[in-house]
Amino acid sequence: MTYQEVVKNARERIGKYCKACNVCNGRACTNLVPGPGAKGSGDGAIRNFDAWKNIRVNMDTICENAPIDTSVCLFGKGFAMPVFAGPVGAVNLHYGDCYDDTQYNKILVNACAENGIAAFTGDGMDANVMVAATKAIKEAGGAGVPTVKPWSREMVADKMKMVKDSNAFAVAMDIDAAGLPFLKNFQPPAGSKTVEELKAIISEHDVPFIVKGIITVKGALKAKEAGAAAIVVSNHGGRVLDQCPATAEVLPEIVEALKGSGMKILVDGGIRDGVTVFKALAMGADGVIIARPFVTAVYGGAEEGVKCYIEKIKAELADTMAMCGAHSISEITGDMIRILK
């Protein structure tokens, strides 16, 4: 199966909202929610994608002709490349009823683990979503990252029991999900967390805790104060607040602010190919998260579709590294890109 065949198959199975575009740039779905689109004008998803195009790679092939190694160690675990599949919830609502969250997470977690990367899994109003996600991660030997919504502390504690039982190597909280309508009106109250509340949650758990949804230096420093092992520079795909800056626009200043802290920095938003993965790494990210294209991969080819997309990203990353003179991930440096004014 080729990636083109995966996309073609997905168009026939993915439902009425997502268009399974050749390039997932946020334009065809604009503000379609339900669906993969962004909030309001749809500006957030579009800007995320477009901002990476303002960064160019500097070709330099006057270097040793040596093998390319895309592997990396993060959170004490080795990966084939510093790329993770992102959490997606309510797939049957947003992407069509070909799969429900249980089926989707099982396919995604297993396929990612078998192909050397890991998947972040979603959470939602239906308690069975987290049950199924953590079960899939446990069956994959802990090779996944359950992503817990910012529920009340009691609910978070209940979810974290499942996380612990899954043997997941890390856990995440998408703190920006506080902007989702079902959390705003939830009882007991859920949503935004103070540094002290977040610190209390993190202190109760012994696996690396990742705070997803950081878009400012101020937010990054708060996550650091709370004791997070890592952050994800993310605006939730533009789905929770219109007119946010693109992740590529804020990544450099966040990297600078956290320099020497030991915190890992992941980034998502509009990353669709291996060249863009290279750009993010050159800007100082330790890894990237890609979400929406993995939905297309699952709907278009299940495990084989996910494998196909992972191989595509890895090949593009390796090719870019070779053409820019980096033979390992650690050799990717800031002078290998040019940020356009």
Automatic annotation (TrEMBL):
Record field: catalytic activity: (S)-lactate + O2 = pyruvate + H2O2
Family per record: Belongs to the FMN-dependent alpha-hydroxy acid dehydrogenase family.
PROSITE patterns listed in its UniProt record: FMN_HYDROXY_ACID_DH_2
Entries under PANTHER family matching the protein: 2-HYDROXYACID OXIDASE 1, S -2-HYDROXY-ACID OXIDASE-RELATED
CC cofactor: FMN
Keyword Transferase: no
Keyword set, alphabetical order: Flavoprotein, FMN, Oxidoreductase
Protein name as catalogued: L-lactate oxidase
Highest taxon listed in the record's lineage: Bacteria
Domain FMN hydroxy acid dehydrogenase per the UniProt entry, residue ranges: 1-341
InterPro entries (alphabetical): Aldolase_TIM (IPR013785), Alpha-hydoxy_acid_DH_FMN (IPR012133), FMN-dep_DH (IPR000262), FMN_HAD (IPR037396)
